[in-house]
Recover the amino acids of this structure.
């Protein structure tokens, strides 16, 4: 039993190491956005040596991120269910890992990781628990946080406003929020003066670097009582931005107030996206229903009659019935005709229309028949 367990654990770790893509999360260029990724997963593991500790941490990161993703995309019930899954059950859902930060010492591995899961497999798993995930993301926002205080205005230096945006970790949310890395390439390409002056060429260059849909310049400054005055205005793919308000956290600290303002912005943008998606879905459903109503259908029908004159009269009444668009005769005899009835709408619609014309459409012994009432 113990040997079997050890073999299983070894296979789990080998499989994990085969699928890992351990690349720096802060590489230059576009920042990946996917709702099936979890950022900022912190792990701290010890073992006989650093390598063993790292292997344990990589497994731990996935197990920790799995319910975190369920909480973001589903509900508490889903979180409770996926938390019951064992290591060997969770492993097949992993797509890749990347390192945000790491610290390695003898027998210890401490890191912050981004964990990515396989979209199709996650959707299928959640569907078993009644949770539907569309996988759709809204437009990505590249946020430039400008902090204003008595000293002046800053864009790239550390401050509570920039930290609040970075700590949001919303690159993989329904509305991706991307905060520039602030590395040498960023600072050399764009200064706070360029932002304030609205240098379109430099702003567009930065947008292209991060492959974002739009740029939002977010101004923040200290307010009375530990609050933060947040200002974000202008046009966006989700409509006009009109944030100009003082946010004050219950703790009365600038850092918490900044986080409150940032979270409020993201919540409003997410709700707007969901509302727009709901309207689009309703419009698509209405268009489909209209298309179904106008779609042409065919039905094999028998039309019994006593003679040619009755047949001519029946055919004329059928053809003049609203919703009937064609009547093709397959066979004709002295006692009746076999026809293909072309119509739009549903069978119930054409049945009602024929009834209004004094005709009856019914099914007898598995075949449709039109008779005069």
């Amino acid at each position: 039993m113990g040997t079997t367990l050890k073999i299983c654990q070894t296979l789990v770790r080998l499989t994990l190491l085969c699928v890992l893509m351990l690349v720096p999360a802060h590489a230059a260029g576009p920042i990946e956005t996917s709702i099936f990724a979890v950022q900022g997963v912190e792990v701290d593991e010890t073992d006989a040596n650093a390598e063993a500790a790292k292997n344990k941490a990589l497994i731990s990161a996935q197990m920790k991120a799995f319910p975190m993703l369920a909480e973001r995309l589903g509900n508490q019930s889903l979180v409770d269910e996926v938390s019951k899954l064992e290591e060997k059950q969770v492993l097949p859902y992993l797509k890749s890992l990347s390192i945000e930060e790491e610290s390695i010492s003898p027998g210890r591995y401490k890191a912050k990781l981004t964990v990515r899961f396989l979209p199709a497999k996650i959707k299928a798993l959640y569907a078993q628990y009644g949770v539907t995930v569309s996988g759709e993301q809204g437009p990505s926002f590249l946020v430039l946080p400008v902090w204003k205080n008595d000293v002046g205005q800053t864009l790239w230096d550390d401050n509570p406003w920039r930290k609040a945006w970075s700590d949001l970790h919303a690159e993989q949310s329904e509305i991706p929020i991307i905060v520039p890395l602030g590395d040498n390439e960023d600072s050399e390409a764009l200064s706070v003066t360029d932002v304030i002056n609205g240098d379109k060429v430099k702003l567009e260059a930065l947008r292209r670097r991060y492959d974002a849909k739009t740029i939002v310049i977010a101004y923040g400054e200290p307010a009375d009582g530990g609050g933060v005055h947040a200002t974000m205005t202008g046009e966006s793919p989700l409509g006009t931005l009109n944030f100009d308000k003082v946010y004050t956290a219950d703790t009365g600290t600038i850092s918490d107030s900044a986080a409150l303002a940032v979270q409020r912005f993201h919540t409003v943008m997410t709700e707007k996206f969901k509302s727009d998606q709901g309207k689009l879905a309703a419009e698509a459903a209405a268009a489909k229903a209209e298309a179904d109503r106008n779609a042409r259908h065919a039905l094999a029908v028998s039309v019994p009659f006593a003679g040619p004159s009755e047949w001519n009269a029946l055919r004329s009444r059928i053809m003049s019935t609203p919703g009937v668009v064609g009547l093709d005769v397959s066979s004709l005899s002295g006692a009746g005709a076999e026809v293909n009835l072309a119509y739009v709408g549903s069978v119930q619609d054409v049945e009602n229309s024929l009834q209004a014309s004094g005709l009856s459409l019914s099914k007898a012994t598995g075949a449709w028949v039109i008779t005069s009432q």
